[in-house]
From TrEMBL:
PANTHER family: FAM11A, B PROTEIN, TRANSMEMBRANE PROTEIN 185A
UniProtKB keywords: Membrane, Signal, Transmembrane, Transmembrane helix
Gene this protein is translated from: LOC106820219
Annotated signal sequence range: 1-19
Protein name as catalogued: Transmembrane protein 185B-like
Upper classification of the organism: Eukaryota, Metazoa, Ecdysozoa, Scalidophora, Priapulida
Keyword Signal: yes
Length: 160
């Protein structure tokens, strides 16, 4: 519980730093984006340890998994915003593409499993319904994120 509270406090600190940076954009004394994103890098490092602990002790670790998987994204974005690296946004968002590709594979697996279990006479109706709800929920989460990412990349690259 203490680790979860610490992670949320660090996330709050990141949000406050981002709000401060965005409100005072023209102030020359503002820190670089790289410094603003440091709390997210710390969250990612702590989240890796929490994921390992949660896996070994059969505990839930959804938020921590999201944070630990996106550590490269939390490094690339501030470097691009500070113009330390001049890569295009397509390259910067490669870690997000990888995460969404894995999520899309998970959605396809859930949909296929739901279809197979719908046809199976050995499964009770509650299990069938639960698998269908899971497949629909995963689809409704992943597909809009994928559409958003494609549209962002399309806009930032002036078309393909």
């Amino acid at each position: 519980m203490m680790i979860s509270v610490a992670l949320h406090v660090i996330l709050l600190m990141f949000e406050m730093l981002v709000c401060n940076k965005l409100e005072n954009v023209h102030d020359a004394r503002q820190p670089l984006w790289t410094l603003v994103f440091i709390p997210l890098v710390f969250v990612s490092i702590i989240a890796i340890a929490v994921c390992i602990w949660g896996f070994r002790h059969d505990r839930a670790f959804e938020m921590e998994l999201f944070s630990s998987v996106n550590i490269l994204q939390f490094i690339f974005i501030p470097l691009r915003l500070d113009e330390i690296i001049g890569w295009s946004w397509v390259v910067i968002l490669i870690p997000t593409w990888i995460v969404l590709s894995v999520a899309l594979i998970g959605v396809l697996y859930a949909v296929i499993l739901a279809i197979v279990l719908l046809k199976s006479p050995d499964i009770i109706p509650e299990q069938r319904r639960g698998n269908v709800y899971s497949a629909v929920t995963y689809t409704m989460l992943v597909i809009p994120l994928l559409v958003w990412l494609v549209s962002v990349l399309y806009v930032h690259t002036d078309g393909w």
